[in-house]
Structure formats: C-alpha cells, structure tokens
C-alpha cells in the first residue's frame, strides 16, 4: 500500500478539511466571507489560503519544489503575519494536516506496519514545512518593523527640519 | 432570538385579528376603523418623514461618481454613471429605482479557476430584490380591481399577463408565487449567511414575516378557501367611498389579511421601509456632478476663523526675506 | 515532559466570549490597529475643545462631565444641517450589499468593518435618541444607549474607515459610509478625540501653510535640491518663483510632493513640464498645501484650511489655479471649495495659454486638475514625448478613491499614461475605476503605529497589483495621489516586493523631451535609461 496513492485519492476531502481547519483560527463571523474561495479579488484572504492549502498538499504528494512551496506558503503566512495571531497561532495550521491525514486513512491503515515508515517520513516533511513557515513569518514581521522604522526615520527628519536643524532634503 | 421575536410578533397580530373577529365579533373595528387608522398613519407618517428629510438642506453637492466626468470635449463622459445635467440625473435615478442599478454592479465575472461568477450570492440578492419589489407592485396594482366600480382596462391587462400560464382555477398569478419565493429567499439569506445573520435586526425580520403573512393569507383566500369576492368588493368600495359597511359572509382569513396589511401600513413610516421615499432623495445619487461648473450654495455657510496671510508673513517675514521670497511689508 | 498545547489547541483560538449580538460586545483595542491620540498642543493651535494628554487604550479618556449631552446635541445639529445624514440614518435596509466591498472588512474579517455595521454603530444611538420606536422599544427596535463603550467603539471604527466611498457605489440607496464617518469624526472632535496623525498636520497646516510644517525657506530649500537633480539629469537649470504677484497661474500641490520620495519626483515632473511650456506660474509658501487633513476632522476645519487657496490667488492676482496630483484634495476642491469660499469672481475661467482650450468644466471653481491640463497639451501635440525612456517600466494604474468616486477623473490620466509609457497594463476590472480599492491608509490613517491595519486594509489593492505583477511583470504602480505615493511603497514592499510607486507627472517628465536638454542617461530617480545600462556600466 502506498501512502501517496491513498492521499491522492483522498485529496479533495483532506484539502477541504484542512482549509476548514485554517478558517477555524478566525472568529466565527469572519469565516463566512473568507470561505468564498473563488473570489480572487473580492476575497484575497480566502482565495490565497485556499490556493495555498491545495498547493501545499500537492507539494506533500509530489515532493517539495522549493520555489512553488515558498510561493504558496509565503502568500498564506504573509497574510497571517498581519492578522491578530501569535507566532505559534500563525503557523500552527500546518501541523493540522498530520491529524487530518490519519483520520482520513482510518485506524486500520494507520496501524498497518508498512504505513508507519511512510507516515513518519510524511510527518518529517510537514515539520519542514512548519519550520519554513516560521522563517517566512519572521521575515514578514521584520518587514513590518522595517517599514515602521523607515517611517520613524522620515518623521524624525521632518521634526528636525521643522525645528530648522536641517536645511533641506536630498530627494 | 431576533427571528423568533419577529415571528411571534407577527403571529400575535394574526391571533389578535382572529380573536377580534371570531370571538369578539369586532368586524367593524377590524374591517373599517383599523384600516382607516392605518391608512392615515401611513400617509401622515410618510408626509412627516419626507418633510423631515426635506427640512434638512443639502449643504454640499456630493454625488458618488461611478464613471468618467465631463471634462475635455474629446473625452467621452459617462452620462448615466456620472451625469452633469438634469437628463443624466433622471436617467441615473430611473436605472436606480426601476432596475436597482447599484445592486446589479455586483454582477461581474472573475477569472480564477476558469470563469465563474465571483459574487454569486450578490447576484441572487439583486434578482430577489427585483423579483420582490416588482411582484409586490404588480400584486398591489391588481388589487385596484376591488376599488373601482368597473375593473379598469390596464388592470385587466396586467391580470392577463400575470396569469398567462393559464393554469389552475382560479387562474394562477405568477407574481403570487414570485413574491412568496422572493420573500422567503430574502429571509433565508438573512439567517443563512453568517455576516447577514450578525447584522440583521428585528427591524429586518419583522417586515419580512409581515409581508409573508400578508401574501400567504392572500394566496390562501384566492386559491384554497372560498372567499366571497363580491362581499369583499362591497367592503372595499365602502371604504374608498367613505360609506363603510360590513357585508355578511366574509371569512376571518380576510380580516387577518387586512389586519396584517394595516399593521404594515402603520409600521411603514417608522421603519426602514421608508427607503421607498428616501431613495429619491439620496444626495449621492440625485445630484449632477457639475460641481466646478456651477456653484452649489450651502444655506448655512458661515464665516470661519482663518490664519491670514498677514499673520503668516508676520510669523516668517525674516525667513522669507532670507530665502528671497517677496513680502508685503519690508 | 511539560505539557504543551497541541497544534489543534493553538490554532483553535478561543475568540469567543459566548456569542452575543454586536451591540453588547465592547470594543477591544488591538495593537497596530489604531493611531495615537491627539496631543493637546495640536488641538490648542486651532482652538479645538478638550485639549489634554490621553491614550486611546486607557480606560479614562478624560472627557468633560457632560460629554453625552455634547454628542447628542451634536447629532441633533448635524441632522438639521445634513439631509445626507438624516436620510442615511433612516433608509438602510441592511441588505448587506456593501459588506464585502470594504477593504478593511476584506482584510480583517472584523464584522464591524462592514460598512453597514460601521453605520449601525451610530444609527443605533440615533434610534435611541431621535426615534419614537427606539425610545419605547429600545433594543427591540435596534436602539441602544450611548455609553462610554459605544463612544470608544465609534472612535476605533471611524478611524478604521478611509472615507473611500467604495461601499457607496454598491449601495442601492447610495448610502455613503464616508459621509457617516465624516460626521462621526466631527462628533468625536467635539470631545477632543482626534488622532495625532491628523491633528498634528492640521495644526501645522493652519499655522505654517502645509501639513508637514515646512516653513517658507525650507520649501524653497527643498525645491532647490530637486532643481539640482533636474540640472544633473537634463542639464537645465530651472528657476521657479514663489509668492509672485501678477503670475497668470497659482500652482498648488500636496506638500508631501515637496518632502519625500517618490512624491519629490512628481514635483520635479511638474516643474520640468511648466518650464518646457514657459508657463507663467508661481508657487505659494502660504497656500503650500493642496491636501486637507481638516477634511478628516470637521467640515469647519476643512474650510478653515482650504480658505488659503482662494485668499492667496486673490492676493497674488492670478487668473486661475492649477492643482497637482492629490486624492482627497481634489474631492475637497471639486465638491466643497466653491460652496465654502465662492463665488470666485476675482478669477477667470481657466484657459490654457498653450492650446487656448477653455476649461468649461471648471467655469465656476476656476481650478483645474493638472491631468486635465496635461491631457489637453498632449491632445494638441504641444509636447515632445519619448515614451521609450519609460521602457524599463511596466506600469499599472491605481485610481485614487477620491478622484474616482468623488470626481470621476478616470480617462485623462490613462490618456496621458498611454502617451508617455509603452507598457501599460490594467488591473482586473473589479479593482479599478469606480470600483478601485483604497490604499488602506487614506483619510489620515497613514501613521506608522497602525501599520498592521494599513497592511490589512491595503491587501485587496496589493492583491490586484500582484496579479498584474505575476502575469505581466508590472513593476510600477502609477497614481495621482500624494497619500498613495506615501503609503503604497511600504504596502508594495510588504505584499508585492519589486513594484515601485510613481506619480503620473514623474512618468510624463521622464518622457518629456525638453528644448536644449542634454542627452539624458537616467530617469528622474537617477536610474539608467533603457538601452543605456551598459554604457553606464562601462563608464563606471
């Protein structure tokens, strides 16, 4: 029994549940509008998350292609990094797929001896994803503080200029 | 909870009418006095409401522009979405009032995984809105047959069109079905869509239930119970000719129908339903975007404190001179 | 082993106080989602009530004893003054068409960011105090008492609205949340509840003539630096004039253009264009602000700041005014200025001295938008343009909210753009023109302490830019708004790295072939022109 084949078969169900699990991290009232995944421009949050989840799952199935994975993961984490989450909350959704996969497989399959190794290597990939996500999260937050610092510098400059301590501005 | 309260309120109205007519036999009260009172409240209330709106001026000309402005002659102006004259405004308002132009804006396809309607729900909102308002209007017009001695020709034509399916006896009016379906849909989306449920108030559910009740009792009377149309007409004619009479043989269902309608009329001017009149007055829609061509006057414009040039120059004269900027006083 | 929460527990954040209606949920001040409170000295400068030190997140807002009366009386007064307000309080049917049209709702998912609910925050109090049903039935009629919590909720959410009017486009009754926010903020200002990012610029603008507080000699100094750059790039030394009596035209632009990138490049563009035309124009240091943060405060404050434009035009004896690229400045000029300060009978109907075109559309206000002016020049073949100089740019166009929905200047900038760049790609239809998405930082919310809010609010805009960036390689987001030029760069930096931001007239000036200029090797930013990159490398 190959894990990949089973996952391929159960893809739509797992992806759907994984997406729901991501949505669960939002307040109940926000989930409805975010759930409309088809509206790319009217609902960028839901669209990006849905697309990202599917992309990540494909990556789990077909192996990680760094550029693709980072594009999907980046889109998702970039959004979650500015929403009201703690760092762990922002990336925790990645681990959820472990449980979901096991639930979809059912106890019989999971306890199958041939499956254990395959599952644990899948788990390892998921762990990598999570670490990767955390890197992106940190970059995003750094970017935010970078933006704030830049604006603070401009502000200071302006205050100095107002106080006539600097003559002018080099554009 | 809010749904339940609204539902119970409408139910209570039904019970009141039933008890009043069946138990207490207050036919004159429910057939004449209450309808008259409701009508007076409706007309008086709407007049008060419109006068109130009218009493506040429109200090600024603030149309929401939804297309290209009138500027250079070779640039094509969008005369309906950004009108600069009266005709354009009339056109814009007509589109808005008759076809709900702004709601329709939601209808746009977007490409994602292939072409799909992205604002799917909103499209239904527009459709249901149109269906509801238009069928309500037609139903209302059809009812005029009760208020004239002879049924007027335009009304007969509308009735003819409305029953063109030629099914059932009495003939089925399409608008009856459409009205009930639309109200039901509008109710469903309020409870079905999470954010709609979140923002809906009793003020939203109550009129829906009320209108549903009115339509339902009407449908029951027409298609399912035998209603003495002739007597109803006598009652209606009595009301409009100010010689009210209560003929025998009108069932309680009719009184419920009439009482719910009276409730709606009386409720109308103090509720959101006043959008019926308000839509015509909206300053973001009914004004021309000719702001820079023609001065708009604000009746309460008043002088304000400003920091004058003289004060400014007094603050900075030396610095200005130093920078080679001309000054008034050396 | 220590017990860590499981991932399921982590990601299932318990948001819920058990579900209550929105009326009963007090506002929670989330960090990064609101701006600093106004400082006493900023309010004192313009004589605003209740100047004091306060912090929005503090429990005690140091309000006057009778604050509730002040607000209720304030509402009553505005109901009398504005039909829009009275009507919008009465006619909303809560159909929800506006709900998902707000960029803040789209970005945050916070239901109180739905325009309809933002309006209900104030509508509920209106029902309680001004309608019979609300007085008698209370909550049953959707009414609620004005409490301190409600006031805080107003403050939080009226400073999470950028007055962009997008909701108003989709509302079947044209209910305009911008109008409600404007009035809501006016009420808050009766109690000294402004944000410093607005109150500070207002005080500056009142006393010094511009938001940034640039004093006259600093303005001249800043422009001198730009003129140096222009000389380096084109070999031409331009000598603009300031406060010059008898000039034909007064030119007014937002002061942001005089201060920081990339607005300064736009200002360079204006000066190069005017120089090439030999236009008889002057800058003013007194009326050195086209923008109007007063408009984000109160009608009266907006009028007090705006008064300088006509006053200065009159003092200098110019014939008419040209306005630079700015969003809310143009809503104010187009929809308010003439009504406040007119009639401008001391000015003449604008007539281009180059083409002879009379701008009939500005017959009364006597002020034209520079995009109207430039489009007319290009149409009449008065400019020599070399669009190839912008070939290193793939440009998309961001319609600014105010010029799109409060004016309708959509085609002029596109016409200009098509003449000065060769690579122009539109963003998806639902995100441009009257349906354009806000930058997320308008109406005075472009502070740094609310960066998280700005990033969320700007997501729908950025998302559409990302689409054309991925699909067509777009690397330049052009616009006609100073707040855009200040706030889109960080927005792009976060969401779509690699996309820069430019004002329209920077691109015009890049393409503009000036008489007697030397062969240009760089654009206005000092970056090598296409085809010249290698030359540059060899040289260095």
Radius of gyration of chain A: 21 Å
Name the overall outline of chain C. Answer: globular
Give helix and strand order of chain C, one letter per element, not per position. HHHHHHHHHHHHEHEHEHEHEHHHEHEHH
Approximate helicity band of chain C: 40-55%
> Which chains make the largest contact?
B-C, 94 and 103 residues
Number of domains as seen in the coordinates of chain A: 1
For the largest beta-sheet of chain C, the strand count, sense and barrel status come to:
4 strands, parallel
Q: Stretches of chain C where pLDDT falls below 50 for ≥5 residues? A: 13-18
Task: Summarize model confidence as the mean pLDDT of chain A.
Answer: 86
Q: What structural class should be given to the helix and strand makeup of chain C?
A: mainly alpha
| Average pLDDT level of chain C | 93
**What distance separates the N and C termini of chain C?**
62 Å
Strand order of the largest sheet of chain C: 2-1-3-4
Number of strands of chain A: 0
- What is the overall shape of chain A? elongated
Oligomer: heterotrimer
Please characterize this protein's 3D structure:
The complex is a heterotrimer of chains A (171), B (330) and C (540). With 171 residues, chain A is an all-alpha fold. Helices cover 79% and strands 0% of the residues of chain A. In chain A, helix 2 (11-23) packs antiparallel against helix 7, helix 4 (44-62) packs antiparallel against helix 5 and helix 5 packs across helix 9 (113-162). The relative contact order of chain A is 0.11. Chain B contains 13 helices and 2 strands; from the N terminus they run ααααββααααααααα. Chain B has one domain: Transmembrane di-heme cytochromes, Chain C (Fumarate Reductase Cytochrome B subunit, Up-down Bundle), CATH 1.20.950.20. Chain B has helices spanning 2-23, 27-55, 86-99, 101-104, 120-142, 153-162, 174-192, 194-199, 202-224, 229-240, 252-267, 275-278, 309-322, and strands at residues 109-112, 114-117. In chain B, strand 1 (109-112) and strand 2 form a beta hairpin. In chain B, strands 1-2 form a two-stranded antiparallel ribbon. The longest helix of chain B is centred in the first third of the chain and has 29 residues, at 27-55. Mean pLDDT of chain B is 90; it is low at 109-119. Chain B has 330 residues and is mainly alpha-helical. Chain C folds into 2 domains: 21-194, no CATH class; 200-511, no CATH class. Chain C has a 4-stranded parallel β-sheet. The longest helix of chain C is centred in the last third of the chain and has 22 residues, at 451-472. Residues 13-18 of chain C have low confidence and may be disordered. At the B-C interface, helix 2, helix 5, helix 8, helix 9 and helix 13 of B face helix 3, helix 4, helix 6, helix 9 and helix 11 of C.
